[in-house]
Write a structure and sequence with these properties.
Elements lengths: L4 H8 L4 E5 L9 H8 L7 E8 L3 E8 L6 H8 L4 E3 L2 H8 L17 E4 L8 E4 L5 E5 L1 H8 L2 E3 L6
Length: 158
């Protein structure tokens, strides 16, 4: 296992974490599949989403793998009237990461970060380490501290 930029940032701030590698299937990058491969509950593996608000610009959110983001809730959390997902073709330029390997830690620029409140129900959550095939296991409190993030209800009620 090699250290990613996200790992180096956590090391620099003396944040405790662990890493879990898994085999990548390019045809299925879903967080649910990642959860199966790393032996975690699907709701404990958080996917990182990049959005753009109509007032604040780019923002980042992490939500549980099996859920969908509620764009109205994301807008409310971030002080926008509406939010839309950033087009995939812009992801690398904005974040420095590719789809399936987007970490909320270590992006090219520090964007406002929102963590779904369900994360607080876990001692540790899984997030991308910044490359496909590797997950960071970190406490929600440490993730919020390192990103300057806030918790909010971000998921669709089905």
């Amino acid at each position: 296992m090699h250290k990613t930029n996200a790992c180096r940032i956590l090391d620099q701030h003396k944040v405790k974490y662990s890493l879990k590698e898994y085999p990548v299937d390019e045809s299925d990058l879903s967080a649910i599949t990642v959860a199966e491969k790393v032996g975690a509950a699907p709701g404990q593996v958080f996917k990182t989403l990049v959005m753009r608000g109509d007032k604040t610009g780019v923002l980042v959110a992490c939500i549980p793998g099996p859920t969908e983001v509620d764009l109205k809730k994301a807008a409310l959390a971030s002080g926008n009237k509406k939010c839309l997902m950033v087009p995939l073709k812009e992801l690398l330029d904005l974040t420095g990461y590719i789809r399936g390997g987007v970490s909320p830690v270590g992006m090219k620029k520090r964007y406002p970060f929102y963590l779904d409140q369900t994360a607080l129900g876990f001692q540790e959550i899984f997030i991308s380490a910044g490359i496909r095939g590797m997950q960071l296991i970190v406490s929600p409190a440490d993730l919020l501290k390192i990103t300057g993030g806030k918790t909010f209800d971000l998921i669709e009620n089905l």
